[in-house]
Specification:
Structural class of chain B: mainly alpha
CATH superfamily of the largest domain in chain A: Response regulator
Order of helices and strands of chain B: HHEHEHEHEHEEHHHHHHHHHHHHHH
Largest interface: A-B, 72 and 88 residues
CATH architecture of the largest domain in chain B: Orthogonal Bundle
CATH topology of the largest domain in chain A: Rossmann fold
Shape of chain A: elongated
Strand content of chain A: 15-25%
Number of helices of chain A: 11
Largest sheet of chain A: 6 strands, parallel
Shape of chain B: globular
Number of strands of chain A: 12
Strand content of chain B: 5-15%
Radius of gyration of chain B: 28 Å
Order of helices and strands of chain A: HHEHEHEHEEHEHEHEHEHEHEE
Structural class of chain A: alpha/beta
Oligomer: heterodimer
Largest sheet of chain B: 4 strands, parallel
Helix content of chain B: 55-70%
Chain lengths: 330, 484
């Protein structure tokens, strides 16, 4: 008879749970930035809220990016909301809709899909909220992105190609690409990589580098692992793997290790996040074009501050990558 | 058969227990309203008039006022018009109305300065007043920005947010209709999430590849959507055939279809997003003209002008009304309950069991297809990764809504409330900045509790449950006290 009563009770206790768990977030504000309290004496009231939705928090790249956005924004007196679409553009869309309802001052997106994110960016445009993209650009038509701040992925891909040529030496051989087709940034990396490899192959009889397949690694450790296992079956004489980010590269290494082919196949990754750099130092990955997510995060916030101060901001700001072969190596 | 009791005497307890989930939903709404009770800014014309009044109070007559607004949304313009008119009536001068971004404000200020004009006050909307550009305007003191005074109101209850919730749940709620029917017959359909992706990809593929991409006509877009929905209906029918003719367990049959549909979606889309779609494809989930036109004819110039929800929400509600009528008023509905209650008894009493099962799986597939079309319209593109894990959210909505996973029992209205409970919890947690991992835990707990209640209802474990709950609350209470 009193079922409904109990149901209410349990629901309420969930509500309390939700309420409680939001508290740590609030409390952490002064904790993360204890030094900044003095700096913002002039303007104790928040200047507004910057909301960011990243592609996935399981990749340390975005974690570093988001943390730097948060730190930089708080330094300038803004509140920050951090969310993650976890690669699902529908979830990301809902997050942006909630940002719009909350009337945040500015939105930073690392789109889960360069094109499908368009409609909700349009909604933010219509609500008068400026949208900035970091890392992955938005390619939808008819939407207004104030500025895109990201790595020079095309240039990075070229560096990856150079690293691969160096890794394989004069022998050349078969190479597999682990790609992530729905992210524009990763398409550019592959494009740059292929450019350099094709140039290398031109007019060359021996020692060609042969790109035998492009498999979906989706920038994911598990999928990178599986795709590599499969390509080792198809191409036992595989010599190189170009993975569009570190998680996929590390997944590929795990597969090589399992097959005992870690010496035969050289991996070139991308990103240069802590675990990736460690793997390069240990010789698991040959080299990485390094991205600087901390710089991307900070520069994005600085661009927002610049925009609100009335200065002109550039539509696209590319941050160059650099090759890393391991500690002290060149 | 149905969960309606036989006693006709009025009992408040019974009323409560039958509407328990509805009350639960309302309490959740109350909770999130409380948690999001915060400062709100008036917008539009009322804010404009308020600002004009404030300027009249604070500044001497005949002051020069600069109005700065953003180009979007329309309320910004309403603000400027109202403020400008009221200020002129008070005898102040509106030097200029600046519409644009911070750089425009700065340019206008520098220009006015060059022309030798003085400005005593700047009237600005709330978001504009937060711009830091005012700190960079030479000879201007931030104190002279006048904006409307804020008031307190829950963000959760803002109209935009309520419309938001309805729009966010439309896809899951539409799928949950079909799932309710399937679960009432004692089955399950795991393929709906993949069917969303399949349908989104198929409809977008036809529009892009066969019907002229961005130039596709409305009619051809409708045909593309119908093809996608029919294809999903066929897949549902196929699952139903496996389940009836070969006595395949529904769990396994639909698990297979789930993978097939997902794989097909990836093959058709080649893993990419299909996005060369006319803008008008967004009509279904972005436009609000159905409600607007109805409301315009009904309101006789009274009430708020903008009382609108997206067309997809209208579609969802219409589908719920139809299904509710079918389930409560027709033989078909009674048959569906009968099949789930006791299949053998139903067969013996002349219910066409096989037909009913084929029917519910086909409908479930077709509605999943419709959901996929709505999602494709929301995102104006088709991507094979859509709908990941949706089957679980859909099943959750149905179970939270009080439909028994053991078949024979359940209400379509309960499912709607269940879908809204999930949407409200998600939205509320987003608004209160609960991070996404915690959100998953909370949603999981809600589902478990709903299933527990279902079992307790059945087995009469009430006494045990109350004791257990008391203990939990006592422990929680102690934890909260000790953590303080």
């Amino acid at each position: 008879m009193k079922i409904s009563h109990l149901f209410l009770f349990t629901l309420l206790s969930f509500g309390m749970l939700a309420g409680c768990s939001s508290k740590p977030g609030d409390n952490s504000k002064p904790q993360t930035n204890p030094n900044d309290e003095n700096k913002t004496t002039e303007n104790t009231k928040s200047k507004g809220t910057i909301a960011i939705s990243v592609l996935t928090m399981t990749n340390p790249f975005f974690k570093v990016l988001a943390e730097n956005v948060e730190a930089e924004a708080k330094k300038h007196g803004y509140d920050v909301i951090v969310t993650s679409g976890e690669k699902d553009v529908a979830i990301q869309q809902n997050q942006v809709k909630d940002f719009i309802v909350k009337k945040v001052s500015a939105i930073i997106l690392c789109p889960c899909d360069s094109k499908s994110i368009g409609p909700v960016v349009k909604e933010a445009n219509d609500a008068g909220i400026p949208v900035f993209t970091a890392d992955n650009a938005c390619l939808a038509e008819g939407v207004e992105i104030v500025s895109h701040i990201g790595s020079d992925n095309l240039g990075g891909g070229r560096l990856g190609g150079e690293a691969m040529i160096k890794a394989l030496g004069d022998e050349g051989g078969k190479v597999v690409i682990l790609d992530y087709k729905s992210a524009e940034s990763c398409l550019l990396r592959v494009q740059g990589f292929k450019e350099v490899i094709n140039k290398h192959n031109e007019g060359r009889e021996t020692g060609k580098i042969d790109i035998v397949s492009e498999l979906p690694g989706e920038g994911d450790k598990e999928l990178g692992f599986k795709a590599t296992e499969d390509s080792l079956q198809a191409h036992p004489d595989l010599r190189g793997i170009f993975a569009i980010n570190d998680p996929a590269a590390l997944g590929a290494y795990a597969a090589l290790e399992k097959a005992g082919k870690q010496d035969q196949v050289k991996i070139v990754g991308f990103d240069g996040q802590p675990d990736g750099l460690k793997a390069i130092d240990e010789g698991k990955i040959f080299a990485d074009p390094i991205q600087l997510p901390d710089r991307i995060g900070r520069q994005t916030v600085q661009t927002i501050i610049k925009y609100f101060s009335g200065a002109k901001v550039e539509k696209e700001q590319l941050i160059p990558t650099e090759l890393y072969y391991g500690k002290g190596k060149k | 058969m149905s969960s309606k009791g036989s006693s006709k005497s009025f009992s408040p307890w019974k009323l409560l227990s039958e509407n328990g989930i509805l009350i639960g939903l309302l309490l959740l709404c109350a909770l999130f309203s409380y948690l999001t009770y915060e400062e709100q800014q008036p917008t539009g014309a009322s804010a404009g008039i308020q600002v004009a009044d404030l300027i009249q109070d604070r500044y001497s007559p005949g002051s020069n006022v600069l109005i700065i607004i953003k180009p979007e949304p329309p309320e910004q313009n309403e603000f400027a018009q109202a403020a400008s008119q009221a200020l002129q009536e008070y005898g102040h001068t509106v030097v200029e109305i600046v519409v644009g971004a911070p750089p425009d404000a700065r340019q206008a200020w520098d220009r006015l300065k060059a022309e030798g004009k003085t400005v005593q006050a700047i009237a600005a909307t709330q978001d504009v007043s937060q711009w830091t550009v005012f700190d960079f305007m030479e000879g201007f003191d931030r104190k002279n920005i006048v904006r409307a005074e804020s008031y307190n109101w829950p963000t959760f209850l803002m109209r935009a947010n309520l419309v938001n919730i309805a729009g966010q749940i439309a896809v899951i709620a539409i799928l949950a209709i079909g799932m309710t029917l399937v679960i009432i017959t004692g089955g399950i359909d795991l393929s709906v999430g993949s069917l969303i992706a399949f349908s989104a990809v198929v409809s977008c593929w036809f529009i892009q590849e066969k019907f002229g991409a961005q130039e596709a006509s409305t009619m051809s877009m409708i045909i593309a959507c119908l093809i996608a929905i029919a294809a999903c209906g066929l897949i549902g029918l196929f699952s139903g055939a496996l389940i009836t003719t070969f006595d395949c367990p529904p769990f396994i049959a639909t698990l297979g279809m789930m993978m097939i549909a997902s794989g097909l979606a990836f093959i058709i889309a080649e893993g990419q997003s299909i996005y060369k779609i006319p803008e008008s494809f967004k009509w279904l989930s972005h436009q609000k003209d159905i409600v607007e036109s109805v409301w315009d004819t009904v309101r006789f110039g009274m009430g708020p002008k903008d009382l609108s929800v997206p067309n997809s929400v209208v579609l969802m509600l219409v589908l719920y009304v139809i299904t509710h009528i079918v389930m409560t008023r027709t033989t078909l509905g009674r048959y569906i309950y009968a099949v789930g209650g006791n299949r053998e008894a139903a067969r013996l009493s002349g219910v066409p069991v096989i037909f009913i099962l084929l029917f519910v799986y086909t409908i479930c597939g077709a509605l999943a297809g419709l959901g996929g079309v709505v999602l494709a319209s929301q995102l104006n593109s088709g991507l094979p990764t859509y709908g990941l894990m949706y089957e679980l959210f859909v099943i959750a909505a149905v179970v939270v809504g009080g439909t028994s996973l053991f078949g024979g029992e359940g209400k379509i209205t309960g499912t709607l409330v269940g879908a809204f409970i999930i949407a409200v919890i998600r939205n509320g947690m987003n608004l209160t900045n609960v991070e996404s991992y915690t959100q998953k835990v909370v949603l999981g707990l809600v589902i478990l509790i709903a299933v527990l209640i279902d079992r307790i209802k059945k087995k009469g474990l009430m006494g045990k449950f109350v004791t257990a709950l008391k203990n939990v609350i006592l422990i929680l209470g102690r934890m909260v006290r000790s953590s303080d």
